[in-house]
Specification:
By secondary structure, the protein is an alpha+beta fold. The chain is 18% helix and 34% strand.
Length: 168
């Protein structure tokens, strides 16, 4: 059908309505979820993509970030690890994070106060960041201090705490 020829033009508005904040450059249909919504993967130019779910009537679009898709053991074919690192780098730049050039990024989970990500930093200690619902850095912890934050860091090797000095 001619209306289906340019999937990016057709699906990008739904992605934007669902909260995808990027330039959509690729789209493919992934399937239909159990609620009957059509599920599309959207790729983003130089950023993390998402799965966007849209009702068959074209309303009520929702998104699932590719970070979350990967954590769940699925794949996002249009999103590269470098794009995920660039996305986390941009979020870190929105706040007072320690100096970090994100080499690798990983989604850890979420709670009512935000989403948690780990960053492996080039030439520096890694960190865990809490990103708020607007995509801004809300809080960060150096990996050495984050052992109890969402299970701690796994991308960065954290040295064990030094033993207290012996008493005489």
């Amino acid at each position: 059908m001619p209306a289906n020829q340019n999937a990016v033009a057709q699906i990008a508005p739904f992605a934007q309505a669902a909260g995808v904040k990027c330039t959509v450059d690729q789209v493919t249909w992934v399937g239909r979820n159990p609620d009957g919504k059509d599920r599309f993967e959207v790729g983003c130019a130089n950023a993390d993509g998402a799965w966007v779910e849209v009702t068959q009537t074209g309303g009520d679009a929702t998104k699932i970030e590719c970070f979350e898709i990967v954590k769940a053991g699925r794949t996002c074919g249009f999103t590269t690890p470098a794009e995920q690192a660039a996305t986390l780098q941009a979020w870190l730049a929105s706040g007072e994070a320690p100096a970090c050039t994100v080499e690798q990024a990983k989604y850890l989970g979420r709670n009512a106060s935000g989403r948690f990500y780990e960053a492996k930093c080039t030439g520096a200690d890694g960190l865990i960041a809490r990103i708020d619902t607007d995509g801004a850095l809300a809080q960060s912890w150096a990996c050495v201090d984050a052992t109890r934050v969402v299970g701690g860091c796994t991308l960065t090797t954290v040295a064990a705490a030094a033993a207290p000095p012996a008493q005489r």
